[in-house]
From TrEMBL:
Pathway info: Purine metabolism; IMP biosynthesis via de novo pathway; N(1)-(5-phospho-D-ribosyl)glycinamide from 5-phospho-alpha-D-ribose 1-diphosphate: step 1/2
Tagged with keyword Magnesium: yes
GO molecular function: amidophosphoribosyltransferase activity
Note on how the cofactor is bound: Binds 1 [4Fe-4S] cluster per subunit. Binds 1 Mg(2+) ion per subunit.
Catalytic reaction list: 5-phospho-beta-D-ribosylamine + L-glutamate + diphosphate = 5-phospho-alpha-D-ribose 1-diphosphate + L-glutamine + H2O
InterPro entries hit by this protein: GATase_2_dom, Ntn_hydrolases_N, PRTase-like, PRTase_dom, PurF, PurF_N
CDD domains to which the protein is assigned, alphabetical: GPATase_N, PRTases_typeI
Gene this protein is translated from: purF
Protein name, as recorded: Amidophosphoribosyltransferase
Amino acid sequence: MSYEVMHDDFMLDKLNEECGVFGIYGHAHAPDLTYYGLHALQHRGQESAGIVASTGEQFLSHKGMGLVTEAFANNALEKLSGKHAIGHVRYTTAGGSQLVNAQPLIFKYKAGNLALAHNGNLVNANQIRSHLERQGSIFQTTSDTEVIAHLIARSGYDRIEDSIKEALSMIKGAYALLFLTENKLIAALDPNGLRPLSLGKIGDNYVFSSETCAFDVVGAEYIREVEPGEMIIVDEDGLHSERFTQQTQRSICSFEYIYFARPDSNIDGINVHQTRKELGKKLVREFPIEADVITGVPDSSISAAIGYAEESGIPYELGLIKNRYVGRTFIQPNQELRAQGVRMKLSAVRKVVEGKRVVMIDDSIVRGTTSGRIVNMLREAGAKEVHVLISSPPVMNPCFYGIDTSTREELIAATKTVEEIREFIGADSLGFLSVEGMIDAIGREDHAPNNGHCVACFTGQYPTEIYPDTANCVDK
Ligand code: SF4
């Protein structure tokens, strides 16, 4: 029997975040705090982690594959020192999972060294890469982020801020960026603010993080979001803000609220757990169901299930339990035993569901295979009826902004009707939250389209230009 280590179906049947970034300026324990910050952002990327620290004169760095603890095994953190640091956690699909693609990237520019950590994905990376290659640039990685590094390195400005601005004026797509020079920390967010990036402070020292949950871990106080089109520079003179474009329109990824971000994070001032509860409450209004018990697929759907239970008055129960000690990848004997993979991740609680009409809340259906197995698991545990409600609209289009969606053909909602999906997963009924219901539940007041959210994977209306080869820019 041949064995291979592969991504389990449970993860393949979810959208996966591709990165998280953390940075701190002027703190005596900058590398250690960055390590803790990355730990808090681990859910945003589990395939590699890296930190670059600056002593003010030189960079010290370490990158490794795996979880933060694995990447920094064997006391690797002890080799880092300096008062400024940036870090990165990364997720990729198997093909791009190489140390050479791990971040932060370090490269030389006119005045010295620059380190770069990127969350998001560029939609015109291939075009720029081909152009630069024709002019003699040689790329070391397959990552779209390296395109930004080359553009900065080729720029002739004296001030690094001006070189970065010039590079940012040429790239399109999603980018929450942290740059580190020997004595400056610079944060920049794309004109749509597609990915989150927050500013905080520990004492007199500024920190940036993809999510505010990392601020809580390192004892930082939240100050504000980095704004779309804004560049924040922190150096020995303190903090100041510049715009690299005035043409901005917020389109923050709605999936950050639905699934990606940690429940204790606040994104743009809106708490993720509370939002998920509201999504569950909206589901009651759109799909009232007579049932005995509400359960959620752990962990990300529990908040929505609690919201559904609160609004409907039907009790919430732990009908499904997650085995926390199964890693993201594990040895699977063969295709036929893949169903076993879901059973290793999740178990139904027979005493809770036996003889009951169960409403099972999940945050999304991507390919549908896992949902079918969970419905089956609940039936095997004696559930009389299984109704599936999804706290997001059907995902029908790929994401080009740093989320690993399957191709359109693999997205079940792109090829099947809701009734066909219901039949495929074997549920008694199936409902997806409407786009309007979702936007309403998040509750952001913004004059931008969709109240300032990206909803492209649901509607196909992308907030940026999409180029004929954009799909190939997605970093795999
Ligand atoms: S397409 Fe979907 S997953 Fe991608 S940024 Fe937009 S809302 Fe988020």
